[in-house]
Amino acid sequence: MGWLRLSFFVKEGAYVFITGRRQKELDEAVVAIGGNVSGVQGDISKLADLDRLYETVSKVKGRIDIVFANAGVGEFVPFGAITEEHFDKLFNINVRGTLFTVQKALPLLNDGGSIILNGSVASVKGTALSVSTPRVRRPFAPSCEPGLQI
Fold first, then answer.
1. Which own/partner contact pairs does 14-19 have at CB distance under 8 Å and 24+ positions apart?
2. 129 pLDDT exceeds 60?
3. Cβ distance 150 to 142 under 8 Å?
4. Buried b (16+ CB within 10 A) or exposed e, 97-136
5. pTM for the predicted model, two decimal places
6. Per-residue pLDDT tens for 60-88?
7. pLDDT in tens, 41-67
8. CA nearest 76: which of 126, 121, 120, 123?
9. Which of 75, 99, 123, 146 fits a 20 to 30 Å CA distance from 140?
């Protein structure tokens, strides 16, 4: 779903930066989106990777008009089988990664810029962890910065 949205932005004249953990899939996404796109390999749950992403954005384009936070994973396991590692993986990507993706973009965000937190139907139905992570992200969205609207 994220590729479709980004393709729309490109068709409207935007230059987009995308990031992903797996280089092969990232390269495929760049090709699928077409022109006006750069792929920066990284894991949004790692702050150093986000720093590298925004350093690249700053060097190539300088500022950001739209932050489209689309990252999310879902792995379905029975409630009694959830491990600490499973929990940490989901929350590191779905909550921590999204929060820091937005936070680290703020210094580059143009006045009047937009932040879009792309959600999932998993926040409405699903398993315990797949329902909880999108709902955990929701409360911090309107409180990022005074005067910032998301």
1. 14/65, 14/66, 15/61, 17/53, 17/56, 17/57, 17/60, 17/61, 19/44, 19/49, 19/53
2. no
3. yes
4. bbbbbbebbeebbeeeeebebebbebbeebeebbbbbbeb
5. 0.76
6. 999 999 998 876 777 778 888 889 998 89
7. 999 889 999 999 999 999 999 999 999
8. 126
9. 75
The owner of tokens 């700053």 is 58
- E-assigned strand segments in 21-140: 37-41, 64-69, 109-117
Percent of the chain past pLDDT 90, that is, above it, reads 37
- Residue 102 · residue 149 · CB < 8 Å: no
Rounded distance, CA 105 to CA 57, Å?
A: 10
Q: Which of 32, 45, 46, 38 is nearest to 72 (CA)?
A: 45
